[in-house]
Specification:
814 residues, FAD/NAD(P)-binding domain, five-stranded parallel beta sheet, globular
Length: 814
């Protein structure tokens, strides 16, 4: 039978999900053609914020790679915007003249960012935030400019602001409302969110109404934006303005074709346009019963119904969605559902703990939960949403309702995890409508043991990611000891199918000594590798076969090639090593002399008790190193950064141990140590812990009877408290146990994996078994580390031995 022709305009999440559902139930019914205005395959727009923040890449957020379209025989036109629908001839035409005939047409044109109609909106540096192009524009702007203003205090605006701040910009969020995210949060939760974000460095102006964007003008032409002006006449500087003040359905093509549009392309319960039943619409461009949805869960529900009708099953109706919002704004968990603002005839149950960062408000009417607003603790959000949706009488649960499902005494689940307490019919992933039963069944029947596996087979946690913690609980609950939070089998990069662990194992088992040798032995797709795999393979080689494998400086990042930290303006920072944070007058004089001689603009004391010289020109680096005459601080490298100390028993009246000497000794022993990621150590002379040993990769705390060693702490974006490893009596034992832990990490950690993530992956029991329980293995680890570090060159003063290419510091003559 001749296949019908289905053309889809738009290549986003809602449209492609419709195709996925259609291919499941009617894989041979249509010849499918897809037009996408962007040059990218279908990607997860929800994860644009992590791309902006530098946490993910475009490749990592692609949902359907080009191979998926090929596998399903889909003709894909990327970078081609459709400009005309000829309903009489049933043909669509792109702006480059490409045409495609259709029997059924699916419009998934999404939405456009709302650009405020204010003077100056045409200036350079004024953008929306909707796609990869916008994200890349912001990333590029952050490399050059300093001041950013984000207009809009909703989810998208806050994520844009956070990403730009992480890129080094000073960011002000301008919002017309009285509090942030007023559609998802009440005033109390909005206030807590603002306070938390201000503590992280964001600035806010609200309520504030933008009147104009002020820019430089070159003759009669618009220049670049330089300030935002408000209705009261005040201004704030702005080199970049991001408008995140809402979205508008993209109906331009539909209106031109004569389709009825009112707040979107008007569709029926079958997602067919009311004007032409051959044409369907799904996603943010569609208006169903007067509502255009902007959350992903309703759009996927639309896709499922639309697919059944395209498949000619004629079943199912889309009757609208009751939505909940479970979000993670810059690391803060939020949830809201239903009528959380309350009103006449309602009553509220409130739990407020501002100090602990937790706020919960439940709104009841006639003994039924009608709304919920949660800040900081959202673990029971899906349960509250279920109660709202079902309209269940909660009179008997009233006194326990605030404390969540797992604390209901009559369920038999008290003290168990949220996953264990859920029924199989309970929804885990609201975006994709995946239940606990479906996830557990897939884990058992398909032998899944990683989060990536579950995402691939069930779609749970594959969209907004807010249910990731719950899916991981289900993995632990169902797979038990086989669960792996970090997928063992995930490929290192697109150049190979091999995982980090497989590459490490092959290097050790086959005694591979060169990068090219690894690529040949493991059938690398790209003979030269890429910027992701080359540094990783280089590290695995030199850490596995010290003295035999040769370090390749060109396979290191720019900081490690230049042996200095590149800054946003292209200059570098130099941090000489001060063992244990202790220095001398002579060293300080040499530093001051270099600052004057090379006109270094900024001298700063770092959090790791070192002096940072900021703004050094690349051509001056070699001279600065020579004049300072101090050891390399490795502050630019995946290596031991600093050993922070307090003054300890030598000076402090509370000190129980000589922490300064211990810090100097351990830093002198380990200062040339490269690792999978940066390593920080701290030594405190007493339990008052002034050196902050509790959030370091290795933290050492002096007590009356010796030393306590803590490991796998991290004071970064997400603070991880270090875990207790062992208590020892002597400084020699401190050195051996700490060194053995770090060598185990060097040998087993994956490149760019911090100690906290490595320990979570392998388990602290594994570390204890190798370091504490097996004395022979502990000594062997310590000896291997000493062997690797013996004779390791100082790149500042042994450039030839360290294979430093001095030509990179020579100024380019123009």
């Amino acid at each position: 039978m001749k296949k019908m022709k289905l053309v889809m305009v738009g290549n986003g999440m809602a449209g492609v999900r419709t195709l996925e559902e259609l291919l499941k139930i009617a894989p041979d019914l249509y010849e499918i053609t897809v037009f996408g205005a962007e040059p990218h395959p279908n990607y997860n727009r929800i994860l644009l914020s992590p791309v902006l923040a530098g946490e993910q890449t475009l490749e990592e957020i692609v949902l359907n790679p080009l191979s998926w379209y090929e596998e399903h025989g889909i003709t894909l036109h990327l970078g081609k915007k459709v400009v005309e629908i000829d309903r009489r001839r049933r043909v669509v035409r792109a702006e480059d003249g490409t045409e495609a005939a259709y029997d059924r047409l699916l419009l998934a044109t999404g939405s456009n960012p709302f650009m405020l109609p204010v003077p100056g909106r045409e200036l350079d540096g004024v953008i929306g935030y909707r796609d990869i192009a916008d994200t890349n524009a912001m990333i590029e702007a952050a490399k050059t400019y300093r001041h950013a203003v984000v207009i809009g205090g909703g989810l998208l605006g806050l994520e844009a602001a956070n990403g730009l701040m992480l890129r080094g910009m000073q960011v002000t969020v301008v919002h017309i409302g009285d509090w942030l995210m007023e559609r998802q949060l009440d005033s109390v939760a909005g206030g807590l969110l603002r306070k938390s974000l201000e503590e992280r460095g964001l600035k806010f102006l609200l309520p504030a109404q933008t009147a104009a964007l002020v820019g430089d003008r070159d003759g009669g032409k618009a220049g670049r934006v330089k300030a935002v002006q408000f209705k009261d006449g005040s201004e704030v500087p702005a080199d970049l303005v991001v408008m995140a003040a809402g979205i508008r359905p993209n109906v331009e093509l539909a209106e031109k074709a004569g389709l009825l549009c009112n707040r979107g392309i008007v569709v029926t319960d079958t997602l067919q346009t009311v004007t032409d039943p051959r044409i369907y619409a799904v996603g943010e461009c569609a208006a169903h019963r007067g509502i255009a949805y902007g959350l992903v869960a309703p759009l996927f529900e639309q896709g499922k119904v639309c697919a059944t009708h395209l498949a000619e099953f004629g079943i199912g109706r889309y009757t609208g969605s009751q939505v909940s919002t479970k979000l993670k704004v810059t690391g803060i968990d939020l949830f809201s559902a239903g009528d959380f603002m309350g009103g006449e005839g309602t009553e509220e149950i409130v739990l407020s703990d501002p100090w602990g960062g937790v706020y919960k408000k439940l709104v009841l009417k006639d003994d039924r939960l009608v709304g919920a607003c949660l800040y900081g603790d959202t673990v029971d959000g899906s349960w509250y949403f279920k109660l709202v949706r079902e309209g269940k009488n909660v009179a008997e649960l009233r006194d326990k309702l605030m404390f969540g499902e797992s604390n209901l005494g009559d369920t038999g689940h008290q003290g168990q995890s949220k996953a264990a307490a859920m029924a199989d019919s309970d929804e885990v992933c609201g975006c994709n409508g995946v239940t606990k039963g479906a996830v557990c069944k897939a884990i058992k029947e398909k032998g899944l043991f990683t989060l990536e596996d579950v995402r691939k087979h069930t779609k749970a946690s594959a969209s907004c990611g807010s249910c990731t913690g719950l899916v991981e609980q289900l993995l632990m609950f169902t797979a038990g000891g086989d669960y792996s939070a970090s997928p063992k089998n995930k490929a290192m990069c697109g150049c190979t199918e091999h995982s980090h662990q497989e590459v490490r194992d092959a290097i050790r088992e086959q005694k591979l000594l060169t990068i090219d040798g690894v690529y040949r032995a493991l059938d690398w797709r790209s003979p030269d590798g890429c910027s992701s795999c080359r540094p990783a393979v280089n590290y695995y080689l030199i850490s596995t076969w010290p003295k035999e494998a040769k370090d390749d400086p060109q396979s290191r990042f720019i900081n490690e090639r230049a042996h200095a930290n590149i800054q946003k303006d292209g200059t570098f920072s130099v941090i000489p090593r001060m063992f244990g944070g202790e220095t001398t007058a002579d060293e300080l004089r040499r530093i001051a002399g270099a600052v004057d001689k090379y006109r270094i603009p900024t001298v700063k004391v770092t959090g790791g008790q070192r002096i940072d010289l900021l703004g050094v020109r690349k051509e001056d680096l070699a001279g600065v190193w020579k004049d300072i005459g101090m050891p390399c601080g490795h502050a630019y490298a995946k290596a031991l950064r600093t050993v922070k100390t307090c003054v300890g028993s030598e000076w402090c009246r509370f000190g129980t141990q000589d922490s300064t000497q211990m810090g100097k000794d351990i830093e002198r022993a380990l200062w040339k140590m490269y690792a999978p990621h940066k390593v920080k150590i701290a030594v405190s002379g007493c339990p008052r812990n002034c050196a902050e040993s509790g959030i370091k990769d290795v933290g050492i705390i002096g007590v009356d009877s010796g030393w306590e060693i803590y490991v796998a702490g991290n004071g970064g974006i997400k603070t991880e408290v270090a875990e207790f490893l062992v208590k020892v009596r002597t400084p020699e034992e401190v050195m051996e146990y700490s060194g053995a832990f770090l060598q185990l990490y060097r040998e087993e950690g994956w490149y760019l994996e911090r100690t906290c993530h490595w320990v979570k992956r392998v388990g602290l029991d594994h570390v204890r078994k190798k370091v504490l329980d097996d004395a022979g293995n502990r000594r062997a680890l310590w000896e291997r580390l000493q062997f690797a570090l013996d004779g390791e060159p100082d790149p500042w003063f042994e450039q030839e031995k360290a294979a430093v290419d001095a030509r990179q510091f020579a100024p380019i003559e123009i």
